[in-house]
Amino acid sequence: MTETKAAPTRERAPITARIARVRVASWATAALLVVAVVLAIALQPSLLSPYGIASTFATFLPLVLVAVAQAVVVIGGGLDLSAGAIVALSSVVAVQVMQGSDDRALLGFAVAIGTGLACGLVNGLIVSRLRLQPLIATFATASVFSGLALLVLPTPGGTVPAVLTGTFRQAVAGVPVSVLLVVAVALGWLVVRQLRIMRHIRATGGGPAAAFASLVPVAGAQLASYAFSGIVCGLAGLAVLGNAGSGDPFIGGDLALNSVAAVVIGGVALRGGIGSPIGAIAGAITLALASTILFAIGLPTSWRALASGLVVILALALSALGAPRRQR
Questions:
Q1: pLDDT tens per residue across span 21-73
Q2: Helix, strand or coil, per DSSP, at residue 176
Q3: Are 322 and 314 in contact (CB under 8 A)?
Q4: How confident is the model at residue 100 (pLDDT cuts 50, 70, 90)?
Q5: Could you tell me if residue 11 is inside a domain?
Q6: Chain centre distance of CA 293
Q7: Is 57 inside a domain boundary?
Q8: I want to staple 24 with a disulfide (CB 3.0 to 4.6 A). Which of 53, 241, 261, 322 is the partner?
């Protein structure tokens, strides 16, 4: 009888423990996302149409990808202010390689990812080997990558292969490809997070000294986080091309800071070690919907930056509520 009664307790304990571990920031992220979705639909009912959903998610996708890349770096205790510049450089290199030819689409895909990876490795080597502050290091490399993007494509232009733009605007079983790609990003993280290197990245962000004492390769984890960020930013560059249909060396201007804002809204702790790219995806969608809401209510452009900043401050304040007093 004792064993029979104990079994249900053991089954319920993990579920109860998981609910108890949900932080205030996670609930705040979910609440902000729900409020943003409801308000956006109320103000613009056309968002629920098939075209509205497809175009909205196509616009969201680059920021979603960059937010995931930024989240991994921040969880590892770093910061990447060059993410937007990497997106721009990857996209213009790819569009110059493809030259509008469907036959070169796969080559452009590989070149975009390779360019992003190379930029990420540069950031990772500077931060992990030269021991420079991530804020300063990536601020400097952002200027370098932006300059290279202008050298590759001085003015907006170029032609994207029809196979890329066509696929990006299609639907599978009635579901837009852009929506499927966002879902694929989230599912991909659920797989990638099981890798040992991802556990090392989280441990490094939680405390480099403690991680090093536990035989975690701290420098390797930092390098891997920036390399991962570069690869995902390269994919974001392809998403930009698929949506815009042409190259633009200035496209990544706001992506870096917006990705940091999305990470904050998504409940990822800027001190590192806490959070998930899933939250960053929700934060990116919330931030993008906030811009849609501000446009729908006719708020002057001069006030939109202020309103967006207030949303980020609110999310950061709610995130701080979930941290112990010592960390706040």
A1: 444 556 777 888 888 889 888 888 888 888 888 888 888 899 999 999 999 99
A2: strand
A3: no
A4: confident
A5: no
A6: 21
A7: yes
A8: 322
> Given CA atoms 167, 164, 256, 191 in this order, what sign does their dihedral have?
positive
Cα distance between residue 283 and residue 285, in whole Å: 5
**CA-to-CA distance for 123 and 82, rounded, in angstroms?**
9
CA distances from 51 to 32, 48, 138 (A): 24, 8, 37
Tokens 């696929």 found at: 167
Answer yes or no: are the C-beta atoms of 312 and 261 closer than 8 Å: yes
Question: Cβ distance 95 to 243 under 8 Å?
Answer: no
Whole-Å CA distances, 204 to 198, 258, 273: 10, 24, 7
pLDDT at 231 (0 to 100): 96
Residue 148 near residue 266 (C-beta atoms within 8 A) = no
CA distance 296 to 7: 54
Q: What is the pTM of this model?
A: 0.86
Helix (H) or strand (E) holding 172: strand 171-172
Has residue 209 been placed in a domain?
yes
**Residue from 84, 212, 228, 100 nearest 158 by CA:** 100
| Best CA proximity match to 66, nearest among 91, 47, 41 | 91
Average pLDDT, the chain: 84
Query: Could you identify the residue written with the tokens 């909205």?
Result: 56
**What is the rounded distance in angstroms from the CA atom of residue 205 to the CA atom of residue 103?**
43
What CATH code is carried by the domain that includes residue 258? 1.10.3470
Structural domain boundaries enclosing 56: 24-321
* Three-class SS state of 82: coil
DSSP secondary structure letter of residue 23: -
- From residue 38, how far is each of 32, 57, 111, 179, 286 by CA, in Å? 10, 16, 40, 18, 11
| Residues counted in the chain | 328
Structure tokens at 49: 């149409």
Domain count of the fold of the chain: 1
Q: Is residue 1 part of a domain?
A: no
